[in-house]
Amino acid sequence: MEKIIYLTFPAPGFDSAAYRDQLLSKACPQILQVKGLRALSIEVNDLLQDIPRPMLLLGEGASLGAAVTVWVDNLDERAPIEQALGETADDLQGYLVTESVPQACTDRDWPDGERSPGVTHFTWFEKALQISDEEFFHNWFDVHTPFSFELHPLRWEYIRNAVARPLTRGAPPVRAIVGERFRELRDYTDPERLFGSADVLAKSAEEAGDFSDPQALHSLPLSQYIIKSL
Description:
Order of helices and strands: EHEEHEEHEEHHHE
Number of helices: 6
CATH topology: Alpha-Beta Plaits
Number of strands: 8
């Protein structure tokens, strides 16, 4: 199987609730019919009205409409997926990724199709320009990942995706796509719950440049819908 993540960018000023409903009612049913589709989830940008000034809204995060994740038998069959998503967005950026799960959600108790509890802190970024691939993966995987458990002690799940290559024409370079789940909205909006301590937060700010390019770092809070689980 292969995992693809699509980043969708609707027209500026899009209505987030209407866009979410369009994805759920129109795009997702089309994608579910695609040959070889094994799993489908969407994470949609519909929380900024509830979190008007999120602490971790960075880069072009606010312009993202949704992150759509599919698992397929063969990426060669992806054209209908891109057609369905392209009908809802001005720009579609697709990436083939390899997934790691440093922290799994082990207590899921809601069915496919329902909104998942809590919130996803979603991030995508390019690697720091001055470092090699070897340094990038060491700093991200071996250094930052263990530290992130101190940084976000109430985090519920951590999905780490290393980008293998872009799949859509014109997609900008991206090396990492990350989803960090928090069980309750307050775990994300309250700094004292989101971060382990002021010292840990300061260390994180210093460490970020060891693997990510601050000029190509984007993040925002998203709502998750698991449409079809593996």
